[in-house]
Structures are given as structure tokens and as C-alpha cells.
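Researcher: Quick test of sequence recovery. C-alpha cells follow.
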């Protein structure tokens, strides 16, 4: 019996070692060919698109894509800066951008590596990593500086809402107010840095990035009624997948951001600016209870729950979204 047990343990040990060996070697045997048909960002730009190069330590500048507009009375009116969520981009505000432009100045931009903003890859920087959450805040204020914006109303969707909160905490004097749509403040998707930095994981990273970065299924789950997503809307949402180096850049972002995601939940009480918290009642990504908690923890906040609407109300339910913002703006002013 003892000999059988020892033999079984030995066999299991050999199998285990074989599996470890396979996991160590196989990733390097999987071919990762280049993507075909990719273009420069300027080639995919829309008529209203603009680009600006922002300074960032250790780089020759970061090219940021943005779309802007303003009313005739923009000098006296607020500047609305629209911040998209993960996998989305500046085009997520297409249905509501004119609404904001009619009430002041509006700027919607692509956070890197999304949309048409620059796709930095390893070797493009020698200083701080441009994909950290702290770098995202720095790039936001650099954009405001470049476009001569002293302070702004930050309008954030999903993780764009987290960025808005970070900015209000870091530079409160430059943030007039917050509009937070289905903000992912309490969502934590952290992964161990040691795992993400394994050579095998880094080897397969661009393949994982390709899968996630082209995932129509993720986009569909952000709507309460996925049939409302047109082919044009889906194409604009995934426009980053048309741009050179997007998969490598997306992997660099995921690797850094997943190891150290932003965490602002414990600092919400420090935010004194007026805030509007909006959520769709059918949000499958950020639970409605998270938005209710956010409203309760912000000192100067109002909550609006939109009926029959999902995670991106500015796209799926633009009229309800605009009504909520208009009512809040009238009370705030």
C-alpha cells in the first residue's frame, strides 16, 4: 500500500512538473502575428476631430484627440469636460455634446490608449508610465492648460467618473462641479503585479488585449436594450481597434492599470463641489446601489435614477440624461 501511495505521488509530481513546464514554454510557441489594415489616427478622424500634443515627462509629447464646441455666450458660461469610460471614447458623447455646447463650452477627449489618442507602447517613454491613474489626472489638467481652461464642470461616465473624482480631489480649485453617470467608484478589478509581469503573461498580453478591445459583447451589456446599438455606434465605440499599435498599447494600459487601479472611495467626503449622480435603473456593470451609495457619501450631491436605461445613459437615453442635467443645472445656478 505504501509503495502504491509513493508511486502515485511520484506520478502526480511528474504530471505537475509537466504542466508547469508547458505553462512556462507554450506561451512562447504561440504565434502573434501583426494586425492588418491598421491606419494612423488622423486617417480615421471625423470632421469635427482635433488633436493637441500634451507634454509628459519622458516622452516627446502625447497626441490627444478631442472634439470641442461652444455657445455664443461661452465666455460667461461653464466649460464642460466630458470623460468617457473604459473601452469607450469621445464619441460616446455624440448624442449629448450639442446639449452641453448650447450651455457653455464643451470638450470631449479620448483618454489614452482609447479612441484616436496616441497609442504609446513600451519604449515610447523613459519616465513615469503614462498609463497610470495618476498620469490620467495629469493629462486631464495638461489638456485644460493647453486649451486655456481655468476650471470646468467634469462630466464622467463609468471610469470617467472615477477620473473626475480623482481630479476634484487633486485640484479642487479647478473643478467647478461634477456630473457622474454610472460612476465606477466602487468597482475594483485589481490583479497581482507579479502575475501581469510574468514573461509568459506579457507575451500573450496583446492577444488578450485584442480579444477585450474588440469585444462587442461587452459593449452590448452596457445597454439595457442592446438592440438600440446601431452598427455605426458600435464602429465608433471600437474605433481604437483601427489604429496602429492599438493592441500593444492597450495591453500596456491594462497591465499597469490592473495592478494599481484608482481608489478614491475613502476620500469622497473631502469633495465639496456640487455633484449630480445619474444612473440607469438597469445598469448591468455598476449596480444602482453603488450610485446610491456614492450620492450618500458625497457631501453636496443629488441622485437621479433613469428608467429603462443601462450603463451609458448619454448614449442609450440621451433625452432623459439631458433632462436630469438641465434640471440640476438650473437648481445649481
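Model:
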Amino acid at each position: 500500500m505504501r509503495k502504491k501511495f509513493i508511486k502515485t505521488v511520484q506520478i502526480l509530481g511528474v504530471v505537475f512538473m509537466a504542466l508547469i513546464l508547458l505553462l512556462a514554454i507554450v506561451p512562447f510557441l504561440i504565434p502573434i502575428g501583426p494586425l492588418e489594415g491598421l491606419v494612423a489616427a488622423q486617417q480615421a478622424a471625423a470632421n469635427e476631430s482635433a488633436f493637441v500634443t500634451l507634454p509628459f515627462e519622458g516622452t516627446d509629447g502625447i497626441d490627444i484627440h478631442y472634439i470641442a464646441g461652444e455657445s455664443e455666450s461661452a465666455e460667461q458660461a461653464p466649460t464642460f469636460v466630458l470623460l468617457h469610460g473604459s473601452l469607450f471614447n469621445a464619441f460616446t458623447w455624440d448624442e449629448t455634446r450639442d446639449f452641453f455646447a448650447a450651455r457653455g463650452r464643451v470638450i470631449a477627449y479620448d483618454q489614452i490608449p482609447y479612441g484616436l489618442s496616441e497609442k504609446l507602447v513600451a519604449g515610447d517613454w523613459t519616465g513615469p508610465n503614462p498609463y497610470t491613474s495618476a498620469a490620467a489626472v495629469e493629462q486631464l489638467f495638461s489638456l485644460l492648460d493647453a486649451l486655456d481652461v481655468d476650471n470646468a464642470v467634469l462630466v464622467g461616465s463609468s471610469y470617467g467618473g472615477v477620473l473626475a473624482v480623482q481630479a476634484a480631489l487633486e485640484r479642487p480649485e479647478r473643478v467647478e462641479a461634477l456630473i457622474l453617470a454610472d460612476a465606477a467608484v466602487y468597482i475594483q478589478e485589481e490583479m497581482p503585479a507579479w502575475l501581469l509581469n510574468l514573461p509568459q503573461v506579457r507575451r500573450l498580453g496583446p492577444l488578450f488585449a485584442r480579444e477585450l478591445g474588440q469585444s462587442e459583447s461587452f459593449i452590448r451589456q452596457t445597454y439595457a436594450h442592446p438592440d438600440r446599438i446601431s452598427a455605426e455606434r458600435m464602429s465608433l465605440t471600437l474605433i481604437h481597434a483601427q489604429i496602429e499599435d492599438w493592441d500593444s498599447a492597450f495591453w500596456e494600459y491594462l497591465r499597469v492599470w490592473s495592478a494599481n487601479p484608482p481608489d478614491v472611495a475613502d476620500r469622497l467626503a473631502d469633495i465639496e463641489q456640487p455633484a449630480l449622480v445619474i444612473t440607469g435603473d438597469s445598469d448591468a456593470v455598476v449596480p444602482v446601489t453603488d450610485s446610491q451609495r456614492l450620492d450618500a457619501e458625497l457631501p453636496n450631491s443629488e441622485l437621479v435614477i433613469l428608467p429603462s436605461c443601462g450603463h451609458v445613459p448619454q448614449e442609450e437615453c440621451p433625452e432623459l440624461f439631458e433632462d436630469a442635467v438641465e434640471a440640476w443645472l438650473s437648481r445649481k445656478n
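Strands lie at 50-54, 62-70, 79-83, 105-109, 152-157, 175-181, 275-280, 301-306.
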